[in-house]
Amino acid sequence: MNERTLGAGKIMAAIAGNSFREAIRDRWLLSLAGFAVLMAGAALLFTQMSFGIAAGALINFSLAAITFLGALMAVLLGNQLVAKEIERRTAYALLAHPVRRRELVLGKFAGLLLALTVNTGLMGLALLAALSWLQGGWHSGEGAVLAALYCVWLELALLTAVSLFFSSFASIGLAAVFSLSLFLIGNFNGELRGLGAAARPGPGRWLPRLVADALPNFGGLNLTTTASHYLPVSARLLGWNSLYVLLYGAAMLILSAVIFEFRDLK
Fold first, then answer.
1. Residue ranges covered by each domain of the chain
2. How many Cα atoms occupy the beta-carbon half-sphere of 47 within 13 Å?
3. How confident is the model over 130-186, as pLDDT tens digits?
4. Does residue 72 register a pLDDT over 60?
5. How far apart are CA 111 and CA 30, in angstroms?
6. pLDDT tens-digit map of 14-32
7. What letters, b where the CB count within 10 A reaches 16 and e where it falls short, cover 60-69?
8. Among candidate residues 229, 151, 164, the one with its CA nearest the CA of residue 15
């Protein structure tokens, strides 16, 4: 490793640390506390149901809440991290030093991803604690819940990269709309493919497939149903999901860095 590489790593680490501190302000800590209370209340409520139904309902409800809160955090903060630096003119001070624009983008991504990791991890622990209390202990099926939580984290990592991509050229409001729209559409990726498969030969068949391939497949990362039924999750599936997010997310970050590199900040 040369001196420039080491220097770039230190710069990105410093930017990531600052972004992480911005992301975990009191309001997000309050949301985590609220989620923990929600889990306790849900566990108490679901005890009135039969064992299997109660556990499945708690898992469904919790994973949906974790995904929803994490997606809001990824979109709202992901669209603001770079834009705020420009609005406050702190970006000018940063870029006046030996800081490249791509280092700023990658550092912001790393900081927000770290905050999302902490956020998802703590909410996941609250879910597992509520599930353990509801069932009176741990069961072998918790492995499926852990796999689903990991895939939620993958979803949020991909959504963060997508949000940074839109924020590299659009206003905060438009970037948020684009990111949330893509997240919602991406959750119906399987249905879009099914629509193409059911259509007659021609554009009606290959166009939905083409769109589904181009859009991020958030739906394929959703293992909520699998986890709620305690079905086994193969290591192969987790590996493919990880590779998909790595490649698609890297493409989004590269595009973000390239666009931001040529953006006029005046």
1. 3-187+222-261
2. 12
3. 788 777 666 666 788 999 999 999 999 999 999 989 888 877 888 888 999 999 888
4. yes
5. 20
6. 777 777 777 666 455 556 6
7. ebbbebbbeb
8. 164
